[in-house]
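Entry details:
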Amino acid sequence: MLPQRRFSFHVAVVAFAIAYIYFSTVLVFIGRCFGLRSSPGILHTVFFTFLAAMCVYSYLLALYMDPGRVPYSYLPDIEDSSIPIHEIKRKGGDLRYCQKCSHYKPPRAHHCRICNRCVLRMDHHCVWMDNCIGHANYKTFFVFVVYAVISCIYSLSMLIGSVTVDTREDVEDYYRLVHVSSGLLLVPLSLALGIFLGWHIYLILRNKTTIEYHEGVRAMVLAEKGGQLYSHPYDVGAYENLIAILGPNIVYWLWPTSRHLGSGISFQTKFDKQIGSSASTTH
């Protein structure tokens, strides 16, 4: 059962944008270019409807999915040899403890002031989804951005085709208005989402969250001042980082749900590899 949610202006804007882009693309751009009853028109309509459906499905999942809660029974076990590192506070060196939630924070977990709770592997709080993006819904969020970028570029190409068809001077003002308004929406949206997608592809390949990226910049500066080199502990290689988020089966990389996610309490680190390789060399 879906939880009750308050009205969100940002979510309403996203819903309106998706609906407007879909209907303007199908009814105006594809209709003017190919005709909705022609074979090319039907194929384009079916394909774009699939893209729009995946956008809506991924968006709703990311909107309502819990990003990952810290179990109330969680306690860090510093004597567990299977966990080679433990995150500590920058000041004092104590284990990370959330004063607001009154429990210890697992590695990569952070407290969200908007949601007023700790989130496992928190990336950021997304106002456009009125939800945190964390361990459980990060892939869903990423897949939504992928389909949104593809949909915007596809719609923009149909818009260009429709404009080239409507070069006559007797084109109705309605179509001119749709072309202009859609262009003003699609061009900046495609650029913004494309840059945003590229940013998150970079983060996935480095196995970083947005929070960890900014923390890493600060840690790198401090390490350089001390004459040391900073290395992100969760970066275990581009391919391993990729399957950690999207899953081991490439067929399901662009499907918004996944079953490969662990508990979100512990994560593989490059130190695990070092321990494994040293153990194999000793035997």
Notes: The mean pLDDT is 87. The helical segments are 9-33, 39-64, 138-165, 173-206, 210-225, 238-246, 270-282. Residues 152 and 186 are 6 Å apart (CA to CA).
